[in-house]
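Here we describe the complex-level prediction in full. Unlike the single-chain runs in Section 2.1, the two entities below were treated as one system.
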Amino acid sequence: MIEIKEQILADNRKVADRLRSRLAASRTFLLNLMSSPGSGKTSLLLRTVEALADRYRIAVVEADLDSTVDADRIASAGVPAVQVRTGGFCHVEAVMVERALECLDPAELDLIVIENVGNLICPAQSDTGAHVNVAMTSVPEGDDKPLKYPLIFASCDLVILNKIDYLSLEPFDAEEFARRVKQLNPQAPVCRLSCRTAEGLACWLEWLEAHLRSAFR
Amino acid sequence: MIEIKEQILADNRKVADRLRSRLAASRTFLLNLMSSPGSGKTSLLLRTVEALADRYRIAVVEADLDSTVDADRIASAGVPAVQVRTGGFCHVEAVMVERALECLDPAELDLIVIENVGNLICPAQSDTGAHVNVAMTSVPEGDDKPLKYPLIFASCDLVILNKIDYLSLEPFDAEEFARRVKQLNPQAPVCRLSCRTAEGLACWLEWLEAHLRSAFR
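The structure predicted for the assembly as a whole is:
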């Protein structure tokens, strides 16, 4: 079982590397957004489209076990959205992204976001072909998530803490949360924001724009 | 790969059935509690221990990728807690529960709760050996979770909606949520509660006590 799994992972890494190179050649930035169910991935994407769609050509690859709820929300914001229905599969692999991109024209896009399946575990173990990986969590989930799900926080390029409008209602220690992330991943910035109130969104948007400008220099 | 996976599932089912029978023989009720990260599994267990520990002998099997945060919280409530560190593995299988029970004396217990890894997907696909399965979600996660994670809601015996003290703050339609659950699973009751305020806890405690009384008749 382990050998087979390692073979599958190696095959996936090959597809992921190919995808990354191909998109770099067309200067299309691929970002993988991961979180628990209900942390606010789709809400963040809607805020991002609202802020950047006049300057960047954006598309979204929506992954879900079932339903097209999120793809519908994104499409209604006027951005191309491709739905990947994983049918019970718990995370996105590079081959699924390659298939999804057949429905888009990456050469005509500046940014493609993969909204991964809501899951803090399995997505962190698989390369989607993205140029950067973003891990999101939210205040109601509690400040102990880095202790319990270390891989996703250790292996991402940015951590987003959403729903900070709940900080006054929850026994959530934001400093302690940031310390726990830093211990796992000294490089990754932590952006605290609220997709509902828009507070703190600049941190995320500036990080993203800096990467969009410098990615393929 | 699929054949191997099916073999693993079949092996796991055999272990699960053996475990279920063995615990039934000693009249020890095994309950599997599943949810996303941060929905409030540990908080529910602390409330449950508080309400029932004077009448039932309770123990908890805590599963986490890493850390002993939850087992420590449970143990400090005076209830035996066995920590299963899955080391990156995304759900609990029956063989892990069997190993964990080596640290307890099931014949001396009325109720053992498995606090599964925080994940709405993979735990629903694997039999832990439990007599009943409980799926929990919480208001901040959104009312669309049954649409996006149908298997866990379709295959459980009870659905718990936690953090109802947030209902006034969130665009969460509790009636629509209940309808979505019912469509997937007409048998499973839905208990709405708040582990923080204790509102609605009676629904869960009465369901649990009814099962404890009638399980091995």
